[in-house]
Amino acid sequence: MLPARHRMTRSTEFGRTVRSGKRTVQPDLVVYLHHGASIDSTETPGPRVGLIVGKSVGNAVVRHRVSRRVRHCVREFLDDLHPADNVVVRALPSSALAPSQDLSRQLGAGIARGCRR
């Protein structure tokens, strides 16, 4: 589980990140990275991460498994992000069968490409 200060909880944060963030597409994941101040200035600083795992990935059991695996991979890259960054990771249907190492590699590549732009 991610610490509360790193969790994206508001739909406005998700929407802004997906709408105006830099999108990088990987075989199993789509990573949106938006660099900017948070909506509420009283929030504790830290990169905020949100996950989107739709029904196309599989049933509830599969979606939760994918969410746990992606969340675990995201924890590795929190130190690489700026405190004002917002990241949304969208799991594609193929992520249900992808090994965790591939998800971690794809997530790292997506974050690196998003930071470079």
Automatic annotation (TrEMBL):
SUPFAM superfamilies: Ribosomal protein S5 domain 2-like. It is an enzyme of class 3 (hydrolase). Its EC number is 3.1.26.5. It catalyses: Endonucleolytic cleavage of RNA, removing 5'-extranucleotides from tRNA precursor. Consists of a catalytic RNA component (M1 or rnpB) and a protein subunit. RNaseP catalyzes the removal of the 5'-leader sequence from pre-tRNA to produce the mature 5'-terminus. It can also cleave other RNA substrates such as 4.5S RNA. The protein component plays an auxiliary but essential role in vivo by binding to the 5'-leader sequence and broadening the substrate specificity of the ribozyme. It holds the Pfam family Ribonuclease_P. Keywords: Endonuclease, Hydrolase, Nuclease, RNA-binding, tRNA processing. InterPro entries: Ribosomal_Su5_D2-typ_SF, Ribsml_uS5_D2-typ_fold_subgr, RNase_P. Belongs to the RnpA family. The lineage of its organism: Bacteria, Bacillati, Actinomycetota, Actinomycetes, Mycobacteriales. One of its GO terms (molecular function) is tRNA binding. One of its GO terms (cellular component) is ribonuclease P complex. One of its GO terms (biological process) is tRNA 5'-leader removal. This is Ribonuclease P protein component.
